[in-house]
Amino acid sequence: MFLVCDHPLLAARIFETHLEGELASLETPEWLAMLLRPDAKTELARSEELRVAVREVLRHGGYKPTGRGKPSSEYLLRAAQEGGLSSINALVDACNVTSLHSGFPISVVDLDLARAPLSIAVAATGASYVFNTSGQTIDLAGLLCVFDADGPCANAVKDAQRTKTHPGTKRTLSVIWGHRDFRAALEAAKTSYWRTLERLGACVQPVATSS
Fold first, then answer.
1. Which long-range contacts (CB under 8 A, 24 or more apart) does 41-45 make?
2. Residue 166 — pLDDT band, cuts 50, 70, 90?
3. Where are the domains of the chain?
4. How far apart are CA 69 and CA 17, in angstroms?
5. Which CATH superfamily is domain 2-210 in?
6. Is the pLDDT of residue 1 over 80?
7. pLDDT confidence band for 157 (50 / 70 / 90)
8. Mean pLDDT over residues 6-15, rounded?
9. In whole angstroms, what is the distance from residue 121 CA to residue 195 CA?
10. What is the DSSP annotation of 94-148?
11. Does 117 sit behind a cis peptide bond, omega within 30 degrees of 0 on the bond before it?
12. Which of 51, 131, 154, 155 could bridge 159 with an S-S bond, Cβ 3.0-4.6 Å?
């Protein structure tokens, strides 16, 4: 059971993805790589209203989602428009395609690197974690995060380095961070994401939540 804190604005879609083998053996197909372009045709549609709403969700706990701390979906769009998005691996590419075209930030956690129990809650003052291989950290105070037994490990801005996918990844947890007023768009993003993962040959399973 995945515990989600009581939050007046948050609507999240949470599910697991299981691969038949290790991630290193799953190449990104051309059709998926093509969808990393901002002008690619998909059934999803981002909007300015959604962008503002996502920031509102993150701002509720006291976090300031601006500048380098903006939602990852905004970073993806800007990067795609300015120079294009590079393929990372099939699972991350599927996440980035969905986030880019829907406007929802998405977290991906390697479930064999995270330790149960898992939950979503607002990070306390002083909380932080390393988010890249260079050792850079993000201040998490007031930000909604995924927590495992060792602390926060993912959020709508930057995921923790310690639980990111790697060549040996076999199963992941995905969290689509949404706003309660955009449930239809959120469900469409989840459906599109699932279909992409299943097209890659992965098995997708819903995660039961409680509050």
1. 42/97, 42/101, 42/192, 43/188, 43/192, 44/98, 44/101, 44/102, 44/188, 44/189, 44/192, 45/101, 45/102, 45/185
2. very high
3. 2-210
4. 27
5. Phenylalanyl-trna Synthetase, Chain B, domain 3 (3.50.40.10)
6. no
7. very high
8. 97
9. 28
10. HHHHHHHHH---EEEEETTTS-S--EEEEPPTT-EEE-STT--EEE-TT-EEEEE
11. yes
12. 154
Assigned token pair, 90:
């099939």
pLDDT at 211: 77
Rounded to 10°, the helix 72-82/48-59 angle is 140
Strands 2-4 and 119-122 turn out to be: parallel
pLDDT of the residue at 81: 95
* Residue 84, pLDDT score: 84
Reading the block at residue 91, the tokens are: 């699972």
pLDDT in tens, 122-141: 999 999 999 999 999 999 99
Q: Which residues, at least 6 apart from 19, have a Cβ–Cβ distance to it below 8 Å?
A: 26, 91, 169, 170, 171, 201, 202, 203
Q: How many CB atoms lie within 10 A of CB 139?
A: 15
Strands (E) located in the chain: 2-4, 10-18, 106-110, 119-122, 128-130, 137-139, 144-148, 151-155, 171-179, 203-206, 209-210
